[in-house]
Amino acid sequence: MTGSTGTARLRPALRAPGATRANAVPAGAWWLWALGLATAASRTTNPLLLGLLVGVAGYVVAARRTDAPWARSYGAFIKLGLFVVAVRLVFSAVLGSSVPGSDVLFTLPEVPLPGWAQGVRIGGRVTAEQLVFALYEGAKLAALLICVGAANSLASPARLLKSLPGALYEVGVAVVVAMTFAPNMVADVARLRTARRLRGRSTGGVGAVLRIGLPVLEGALERSVAVAASMDARGYGRTARVPVAVRRTTHVLTLGGL
């Protein structure tokens, strides 16, 4: 009994420290960190640097995310980033590119266009240089999306909204819809896939995606709007006494920032 009790007491000490409500980092700090990574990613197309930035974001998310619904949205942003890279490559191959190159990989059937569409090309030669350029540009955009996904996975939307000043309550209600849509969508996808699996139905393929897609989008948007409506009905941000001059200045600065 004594040995088992001593072992049980040692187990919590051996566990890696996780993110809890007591030691959670402020949501605004996570967004500043993620925006800093995104800014660094937007300044380069070096695949090594982009890979390091994505690796840092993934490591921090794995070490600090909680079991909250929004914490599962990071994987969806990674898939979205890979999809963006694939779309960028396809568009570069089909629509052509202004990047000069001589290493022709293959040639697509070129669609003849009228004279008023000069400068636009559909099909034709596809060079290695234009695909590499498209890959670098797509990787940069994917890294930006993954950095934003890291902030969505680590920062609680409710805690972030609590830090907004009272003069921004209209913007805060809109931010609720924007920030809770992706996490709610990820949670709805997992719920609907589990329901289809329990009913013995397929969860893969184009047909399953089409059947799941519309309920997921509708449910995520309804839940986000419901949260925003409940905040507005409870007078979110309207209890603070903000002078008219401060409110107008805040609105002007917000529009200028946008």
How does the helix and strand content classify structurally? mainly alpha
For the largest beta sheet, what order do the strands appear in spatially? 1-2
Shape annotation: globular
Average residue pLDDT: 75
Please provide the count of β strands.
2
Beta-strand content bin: under 5%
Number of helical runs?
A: 9
What is the element string, with H for helices and E for strands?
HHHHEEHHHHH
Which segments are poorly predicted (pLDDT under 50) over 5 or more consecutive residues?
A: 1-17
How far is the N terminus from the C terminus? 64 Å
What is the CA-based Rg, rounded? Answer: 24 Å
Number of domains: 2
Determine the fraction of residues in helical runs and give it as a percent range: 55-70%
- Summarize the main sheet: 2 strands, antiparallel
